[in-house]
Design brief:
The structure holds three protein chains of three kinds. By secondary structure, chain A is α/β, with parallel strands linked by helices. Chain A is about 35% helix and about 20% strand. Chain A has helices spanning about 50-55, 85-95, 100-105, 110-120, 130-140, 145-150, 160-170, 190-205, 220-225, 240-245, 250-260, 295-300, 325-330, 335-340; strands spanning about 5-20, 20-35, 40, 65-75, 75, 95, 180, 210-215, 225-230, 235-240, 305-310, 315. In chain A, helix 5 (about 130-140) crosses helix 7. By secondary structure, chain B is α/β, with parallel strands linked by helices. Helices cover about 35% and strands about 15% of the residues of chain B. Chain B starts with 10 loop residues before the first strand and ends in an 11-residue tail after the last helix. Helices cover about 65% and strands about 5% of the residues of chain C. Chain C has helices at about 15-20, 25-50, 70-90, 90-100, 105-130, 185-220, 225-240, 240-255, 255-265, 270-285, 285-295, 300-335, 345-350, 360-390, 390-395; strands spanning about 145-150, 160-165, 165-170. The chains are: A alpha/beta, B alpha/beta, C mainly alpha. Chains in contact: A-B, B-C. Chains A and B meet through helix 5, helix 6, helix 7, helix 8 and helix 9 of A and helix 6, helix 7, helix 9 and helix 11 of B.
């Protein structure tokens, strides 16, 4: 195991120039993904999570977009790369899958043709027959029954879940080291979602790839994540291991999100208020206007730095700065803490 | 105007069918039908929320639009007893005066005031060229309220009730977020003061945090105005949040219906079990006891015989004389179905076997086929082993028909032969599964329509 | 606010409301009727009470005989005011929004200003400026800044200088854009030409929109056999040789601008009909259309309130492509001598200058340049309108 992370993102900023002014979608986020790790980027729509995931391989259209900050993949700075190298990274070591598989597949060609194409563009020396065999192998791998027969089917002959499987198969063509999955199950039924999550889990074990999974659904996060980054209005609110996040949610926003889950305390109220305007974000902590624990300093000071809660578990909340009492947020004793491993304290 | 008598349901759906004809050729000859909704029956009591749940393609949305008569059903009755239509008796010819599907134009127009609908996609649910105030006021205008000031006052009041401001009246849909639009959609559905609201996946397109707000608003309004609701969703966790009763749909049929709490704690149909197990839980330590439903929903044009779920059921019944591991039995049936459909590609298995480490001989191909279809090398039952080996031999000889025949005579399941009927589990909890029929030694007769 | 009992949705007594609901006419329809009824009355009066050559407005002392074209033009203007301008005024918020989106496109703003200028001058100019008079004495006067050999004009109104090739006549303020071979003022002729252009644009638009939308919606909403027949007819019409038909009618019965406009207008609506039909079919899947249907609204209501407004931006774009085609076609026919000699169109002016092209190029250049600018403006406008009138696309991209 090398000490170097697979992907390290530091102080990533992505802005868009619009008529209304400069829209800051991602405002200085940092995280790392280790080899073979699944990291979930969680947030509501408009939190900038998709833009963040697209900024990694510079998929953001520029102009109007502009990406700043350091993104290092295996120690190589992606920001410094020229177009050829970028293309190699995108089509090789880092693969993307998206929310709507129907938009990502070309409807004019058979699924087999598209996979063969992908195989051949990755390994130009592969013969057509060999490429087809590889395609069958990949489709079988992602659980398409009877792959050989379905190779000559067109995308519209596949269901939504199957299309997502095909997309995953295409992403696997290059044996990627990092798979960036942007809400791959949001458009799918719950039953199909369960299948896809299982599939990703199995593939990760087999291929040992890192996964950056972008989602708004904490239920999904709990199932697949090793570590979690919670985003809100372009900022990281909290990050830590999945157990940290679920058993000791330390940022008021994370807590609110978890309580919003069906069956949770807030499942019937939600979080009052709406996301701030990305063109003109509020002073101070971004979440302060919706936060029930906000103190006056939250609105006047800068957005709080990430402060350690315990070990690698960080929260960007004023309560974790010296001089504040963090128990205000999780209360003296909560169910989550009671379930937690026991000895963990937050000071 | 008549008063409600006894526990007369507000809405009573009987054997509702919606078949879409499939036509071919220049003369539009009908060659078949997609049976999107194929005979569903349920009751909805006043003030109650009934959840209709199922995967995409199970016909739940079609059921909704048929019930509200946005599409004309091809069969069955939808009796709507609200709007002062209580306690009406059947006509002499057997038709019911409250049957929405047989309403004359003026009755249907009046029915529109009593039943409204909310749709899934907030982005297309408002006319982009109309201020949202006009959109919400439109039903009032259509129903003859000519007083513009009054319309505006009503809509402004209603907008405030759904959590928006009166001044939002003049704003346009593109100025609102998805959650806000769904609130406005709720206002539009409410403006005619209906008794029934059909909500078709109203929160599926929303974020979890906003979803909660909308669900809470829905239940508040429901309590305040005594609305009854038919709530359609594919997400069991949402259904659990809002529904009093649940009906689980699969391929145009209701397979289980009952009290929400009962269905969730004690599901009787394997399909309900599978749906429930697919709900993600927010506990990272929990090992999901996920029942993986293999394959996808079959096409409604040609639904499977017997129990429609048998092609995917993880508890599909083994016939007398076979007793193997349930998972292997499922794989075996899947393999049989693929062979019957002529979908097994021996050639590609042969290619893979020859490129792989092995010799590429028959044994390798067979083992390749076994891996592909999750078939173990040997079963607990010797006769099963034998039949499978024979069938594989025939397949390799290129004799697909013999293989199909060998498999289909040896491996059968009662599930595909007899159609299950509704089994009553008490308290209106019913399910449609052969397993439950055999469990209840003396199956009770299906409850009468009233 | 609004705690008044009658202003709560659950306190509406629908029995009472439906009982005393009359049909309320919208302002737009009311205004249209108020204008169209007198127009029809006048038309009837003109046809029944007056002889063919009597001036329509003789009874108020105006010596102007309203032509067939004028009737249609008046109708199209009335509809334009009540169904294009008035709605923009009635919905200031969305109008402001359209304008914000529209003005991002600079060339389109300039185009709109130019076309508005053509419209206003073309509409009002001929009322205040009398027809250009034929005066052979003042023929071939060059425009300001140009000159011509003094042998061509009978009398030079401007300065006369002597150059290398003899005496040169320079332009003067009397005829800022010069005169043609018969001494008519070109500026005045251009203004009269504007009116012809405006008439072509408005009347063909009226015909195309009316027939196209009607056929498109009927086809979409009837479906089945009617749809099939209408759409196959559209196919047939698409391949109909309008130009040849025009020539045939022209030779057989004679014709004029009226024939041109009506013929080309009635054979140009296929695209609109097709578009409206497909849009109706797509939009009917949209949830807002289903919601409207669920209110119990009639198909007529749904078509007029939802379908047509949501098709408008595309219809306008189709028109911005069609109308320049008509203007160009008229000019071409006129240039070839197949136009209406009585209509003072730009094309007509273009053709009068044909023979004088070597020495008096301005006669051709001026209308040619205007035609070019007008067509360019329409094209710029079409692009911008499609972008600006599409709030959905905007909202998604934000």
């Amino acid at each position: 195991m090398t000490t170097e992370p697979l992907l390290s993102v530091e102080n990533l900023h992505t802005t868009f120039t619009t008529d209304a002014g400069t829209l800051t979608a991602v405002d200085g986020i940092s995280f790392e993904i280790e080899e073979g790790e699944t990291m979930c980027l969680v947030g509501e729509s408009g939190s900038g999570k998709t833009v963040a995931s697209e900024s990694i391989t510079r998929l953001v259209q520029s102009p109007p977009g502009e990406v700043q900050g350091t993104v290092e993949f295996r120690g190589r700075d992606i920001g410094e790369m020229d177009d050829t190298e970028l293309r190699e990274i995108r089509g090789g070591d880092v693969a993307h899958i998206f929310q709507n598989p129907q938009d990502a597949l070309n409807h004019c060609y058979t699924v087999g043709w598209q996979i063969v194409e992908a195989v051949q563009s990755h390994e130009p020396n592969t013969g057509r027959e060999a490429a087809r065999e590889r395609a069958v192998e990949l489709l079988t791998e992602v659980g398409i029954a009877n792959a050989a027969a379905r190779l000559d089917d067109y995308p519209h002959e596949f269901s939504g879940g199957q299309k997502q499987r095909v997309m995953i198969a295409m992403a696997l063509v290059t044996n990627p080291e990092l798979l960036i999955a942007d809400e791959p199950t949001t458009a799918l039924d719950v039953t199909v979602q369960a299948q896809i999550l299982k599939l990703l889990d199995r593939l990760q074990d087999e291929y040992g790839m890192g996964i950056l999974f972008v989602t708004h659904d904490l239920g999904v996060v709990a199932q697949i994540a090793d570590s979690v980054v919670v985003m809100y209005a372009g900022k990281v609110m909290e990050r830590g291991s999945v157990l940290d996040i679920f058993e000791q949610p330390s940022h008021p926003y994370t807590r609110a999100l978890i309580e919003c889950l069906p069956g949770g305390e807030r499942s019937i109220d939600g979080i009052p208020g709406t996301l701030p305007d990305p063109v003109d974000p509020p002073e101070g902590c971004r979440f302060a206007p919706r936060c029930e624990h906000a103190v006056p300093e939250c609105r006047t000071d800068d957005h709080p730095e990430e402060s350690p809660v315990s070990g690698d578990h960080l929260a960007a909340c004023i309560y974790y700065k010296p001089g504040y009492d963090a128990t205000v947020i999780h209360g003296p004793e909560t169910d989550a803490q009671a379930n937690a491993t026991g000895g963990v304290t937050n000071d | 105007m008549t008063e409600r008598v006894g526990d007369e349901p507000l809405l009573s759906v009987r054997d509702l069918e919606k078949h879409y004809p499939i036509t071919q050729g220049y003369l539009s000859r009908e060659v078949g039908a997609a049976r999107a909704v194929d005979g569903i029956s349920f009751d909805l009591r006043p003030g109650e929320t009934l959840g209709l749940v199922g995967e995409s393609g199970c016909g739940k949305s079609t059921a909704a639009t048929s019930i509200i008569n946005l599409e004309t059903p091809t069969g069955g009755e939808v009796l709507f007893n609200g709007g002062g239509r209580w306690n009406r008796q059947r006509n002499e010819d057997g038709s019911h005066p409250n049957d929405v599907t047989a309403f004359a134009d003026d009755e249907l127009f009046a029915f529109r005031r009593d039943a409204q609908m909310i749709f899934q996609d907030p982005s297309s649910s408002f006319d982009p060229r109309m201020s949202i105030g006009s959109s919400v006021a439109e039903p009032l205008q259509v129903h003859g309220m000519t007083d513009q000031g009054r319309r505006r006052a009503i809509v402004e009041d209603l907008l405030e009730q759904v959590g928006l401001a009166a001044k939002d009246y003049d704003r346009y849909p593109h100025e609102f977020s998805g959650g806000q639009k769904q609130r406005i959609a709720l206002a539009r559905a409410l403006v005619l003061n209906p008794e029934l609201i059909v909500a078709d996946e109203p929160v599926s397109a929303l974020d979890v945090s906003i979803r909660a707000e909308i669900l809470s608003l829905i239940s508040d309004l429901q309590d305040e105005y005594g609305l009854s609701m038919l709530f359609i969703s594919h997400d069991m966790s949402v259904i659990r949040e809002v529904c009093d009763r649940v009906a689980v749909m699969y391929l145009g049929e209701i397979v289980e219906i009952g009290d929400a709490e009962e269905v969730f704690t004690d599901p009787q149909h394997p399909y309900t079990e599978a749906l429930l197990s697919a709900i993600p839980t927010a506990d990272p330590r929990a090992e999901q006891a996920n029942i993986e439903l293999r394959g996808t929903v079959p096409t409604p044009t040609n639904p499977p015989s017997g129990c429609r779920f048998h092609t995917r059921c993880h508890r599909v019944i083994q016939p007398d004389g076979i007793d193997i591991d349930q998972e292997n039995w499922r794989s075996l049936l899947n393999f049989r179905d693929e062979v019957l459909a002529g979908q097994v590609d021996v050639e590609s298995a042969r290619e893979i076997a020859s490129t792989a480490a092995g010799e590429g001989d028959d044994a390798d191909i067979k083992s390749e086929l076994r891996t592909e279809f999750d078939l173990p090398e040997s079963f607990a039952d010797a006769s099963v082993d034998e039949t499978l080996a024979d069938a594989l031999d025939s397949l390799l000889d290129g004799d697909d028909e013999t293989a199909a025949e060998q498999l289909s005579t040896a491996f059968t399941t009662p599930c595909e032969q007899s159609e299950p009927v509704m089994t009553d589990h008490g308290d209106g909890h019913q399910s449609q599964c052969l397993l439950n029929e055999s469990a209840q030694s003396a199956p009770q007769p299906t409850p009468s329509d009233d | 606010m609004a705690t008044d009992k009658s202003s709560r949705f659950d306190n509406v007594d629908w029995e009472a409301v439906t009982a005393d609901s009359g049909r309320a006419l919208s302002t737009n329809l009311l205004g249209t009727l108020l204008c169209v009824v007198p127009l029809i009355a006048l038309l009837v009066y003109d046809f029944v009470a007056l002889g063919q050559y009597e001036d329509t407005f003789a009874f108020v002392g105006i010596g102007y005989d309203v032509t067939q074209l004028d009737w249609l033009f008046a109708l199209s203007l009335i509809l334009f005011v009540f169904y294009a301008l008035l709605p923009l005024y009635q919905n200031p918020r969305i109008t402001r929004y359209y304008w914000r989106e529209f003005k991002r496109n600079r060339p389109a703003v300039v185009s709109l200003a130019f076309l508005t200028f053509v419209f206003v001058v073309g509409l009002l100019g001929p009322i205040f400026i009398s027809q250009p008079e034929i005066d052979l004495v003042t023929q071939y006067q060059p425009p300001i800044g140009m000159s011509v050999q003094n042998t061509y004009p009978v009398q030079c109104l401007g300065e006369v200088t002597s150059g290398a090739s003899g005496q040169l006549c320079h332009g003067s303020l009397a005829h800022p854009l010069g005169t043609d071979s018969r001494g008519r003022d070109i500026l005045v002729m251009l203004i009269y030409g504007m009116q012809v252009t405006v008439k072509i644009a408005f009347i063909t638009s009226l015909i195309v929109i009316t027939i196209g939308t009607a056929v498109g919606t009927v086809a979409a909403y009837s479906g089945g056999m009617i749809d099939e027949v209408l759409m196959r007819y559209v196919d047939v019409q698409q391949s109909f040789p309008t130009f040849i038909a025009y020539l045939l009618i022209l030779y057989a019965y004679g014709g004029g601008l009226f024939l041109f406009i009506v013929l080309f207008g009635t054979f140009a609506w296929e695209g609109t009909a097709r578009y409206v039909r497909s849009n109706a079919l797509t939009k009917s899947e949209d949830e807002f259309m289903k919601s409207a249907e669920l209110t119990g609204a009639s198909t007529y209501h749904i078509i007029t309130r939802h379908l047509i407004p949501n098709t408008a931006s595309s219809i306008i774009t189709i028109l911005t492509l069609l109308v320049p085609g008509f203007i160009l076609a008229e000019a071409q026919l006129a240039f070839l001598g197949l136009g209406d000699p009585t209509a003072p169109s730009w094309g007509q002016l273009l053709s009068t200058g044909r023979d004088a092209l070597p020495y008096a190029p301005w006669i051709t250049l001026m209308p040619g340049f205007l035609i070019f600018l007008t067509i360019l403006a329409f094209n710029f406008l079409g692009d911008a309108v499609l972008d600006a009138l599409n709030p959905e696309a905007q909202a998604e991209s934000e």
